[in-house]
Amino acid sequence: MKNLIPFFIISFFVMGTVMGQSNKKKYNNYNVSKKEITTIMLQQSKDWSNGNIEGFMEGYIKSDDLKFVGSKGITYGWKQTLENYKKGYPSKDHLGILTFNLLEFDQLAKDVFLVIGEFHLKRTIGDANGMFSIILKQIDGNWKIIADHSS
User: Fold this and answer.
1) 104 is in which domain, residue-wise?
2) Which of 67, 74, 121, 147 is an S-S bond match for 96, by CB 3.0 to 4.6 Å?
């Protein structure tokens, strides 16, 4: 019996490690999808930094189903999210230069990812930093943000 205890401990450790890895890379397209999503996020940061909020919004699903959670609660829909961005960031000084630090990519289904990261706005009126979690869904071959929680 004493010889079985180390066997069970090692078995549980190995199973936990294997299962943890399989959750992140469960699907064959994990690395390709991660690269595509990273490219979208880089384009969003370029658009934002160039003062192109509409271009930035191309990363989001253009639908009333979009959900954005921020400090003022939940916003529903692409149009309302765009209007909120325009109101909250009315000038280039407010927009600043946007960078992302993408921390976690979790593939929840073949066509769904959860991405967790940090955002950094370098601005003359004062920098802003925070965290975000976004859910992206592959729709007609394109990754689109369907839910965004930023704080």
Assistant:
1) 27-150
2) 121
